[in-house]
Amino acid sequence: MDARYRLICRLIRLVLTLPVSTATTERSFSAMKHVKTDLRNKMGNEFLDDCLTIFFEREYVIGMDEDSIIDEFAKLKDRRVQLTL
């Protein structure tokens, strides 16, 4: 076997033995502990995902104008069925 290939093989083995960082995963689980508390333990996956997105992007969300959010929400299609008795 050529010396070049032995060195490449050795390099690949070294790379494969490097520890993988779990900081992102640990940060996600820590955030989930803050968002999904005992009082909110029946939260659905979609709502949990939305809450975690807001939690992670809180610097961006803090700078948002509440009135513009309300206006955008008001423009959405009304999906509730109006029942008349």
Automatic annotation (TrEMBL):
Coiled coil where? none
- For this UniProt record, give its keywords in alphabetical order, as a comma-separated list: Signal
Q: Where is the HAT C-terminal dimerisation domain?
A: 3-54
The yes or no answer to whether the keyword Signal is present is yes
Say which domain of life the source belongs to. Eukaryota
Signal peptide residues are 1-23
Recorded GO MF terms: protein dimerization activity
The question of whether Signal is a record keyword is answered with yes
PANTHER family recorded for this chain?
OS05G0311600 PROTEIN (PTHR45749:SF37), PTHR45749
What's the protein called, per UniProt? HAT C-terminal dimerisation domain-containing protein
Organism of derivation: Linum trigynum
